[in-house]
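Response to reviewer comment R2.3. The reviewers asked that we include at least one raw input/output pair. We reproduce the pair for Histone H2A.z here without editing.
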Amino acid sequence: MTESETTSKKVNKRVKPVPKSTKAGLIFPVGRIHRMLKNKVPLKRVSILSSVYLAAILEYLASEVLELTISQVSIQSKEYHNVRRISPRHLLLAIKTDEELDNLIRVSTTIAGGGVIPYIHEVLKKVEQKPTHPQQKQTIKSI
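Raw output as returned:
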């Protein structure tokens, strides 16, 4: 064999690199999160395990929010037929209905186009008052 044939065989035997996300069994990009963490940490020394852990947490939170949002869309599609898109309104309602996510996101986040949570204060609701005096009963009946 010539030298060029042996080097070409060595190149063909080279194993393709496997992404860190695949090794960890995640969808979120571990390598990108690792790079971003290294840019933010002053000493530039970050363990790859911390990146895997952070990617797993972010993936879990994203899946939780998406699951709750899909349930909001299905609830609204029963009221209004053929709702097939997730809107900022659905996202807001999903986050506000879950107590833990609401506590996590409440302080620093505003969802553009989300609107407000439907709520009517008890004072503003119409309540029939019972008349206390007999004269009030007569005036109400006469009207």
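The radius of gyration is 30 Å. Residues 17-120 form a domain with the Histone, subunit A fold (CATH 1.10.20.10). Further pairs are available on request from the corresponding author.
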